[in-house]
Design a protein that fits this description.
By secondary structure, this protein is α+β, with helices and mostly antiparallel strands. It has helices at 11-20, 57-64, 106-119, 129-133, and strands at residues 7-8, 23-28, 35-40, 42-44, 47-53, 67-79, 88-103, 135-150. It has a single domain (4-144), classed as Pnp Oxidase, Chain A.
Length: 152
């Protein structure tokens, strides 16, 4: 990281960003350009969990490689100034990469859906079996991540 003064190395702060944010942007290789998609998620045990339909471009690309990048940000705010070049942004963010796994097992899907729902503040979940059969869970095993902040 070029700006070591902005780097977050405290794992508690990094976990707070991962646990308190709601949208993760996933970057997947698609020749000739990357494909980026924002998704809601759940975080547990150094893994990010997502749900999606059983078909689509995202799944096709994941099946080709499974290697993805991700970005999550928390509390972003533009800080204005009288001078244009003195504007700045207050934020915390985590970027990283890892391997994406597709989970199709219905029992595992419900368990991982609980992680996503709990992340967004809902517990005691129940799921319609027909709905569960029409989704898959994506599990991103984080291999590497860095975190950065400005304005804190």
């Amino acid at each position: 990281m070029r700006r070591k003064d902005k780097e977050i190395t405290d794992q508690k702060i990094i976990n707070d960003i991962l646990l308190n944010s709601h949208i993760c942007r996933i970057a997947i290789f698609d020749n000739p350009y990357p494909y980026i998609v924002p998704m809601n998620y759940g975080y547990k045990d150094n893994c990010l969990y997502f749900h999606c339909a059983t078909k689509g471009r995202k799944l096709d690309l994941i099946r080709n490689s499974g290697k993805v990048g991700f970005e999550i940000e928390e509390h972003h705010e533009i800080i204005k100034d009288v001078e244009s070049c003195k504007w700045t942004t207050k934020y915390r963010s985590v970027i990283g990469y890892g391997d994406m796994e597709i989970i199709k097992d219905v029992d595992l899907i419900e368990t991982k859906l609980d992680i996503i729902m709990n992340h967004h503040g809902r517990s005691n979940n129940s799921y319609d079996k027909k709905t569960v059969r029409n989704i898959v869970i994506l599990k991103l095993k984080i291999k590497n991540m860095t975190a950065k902040q400005s304005g804190y």
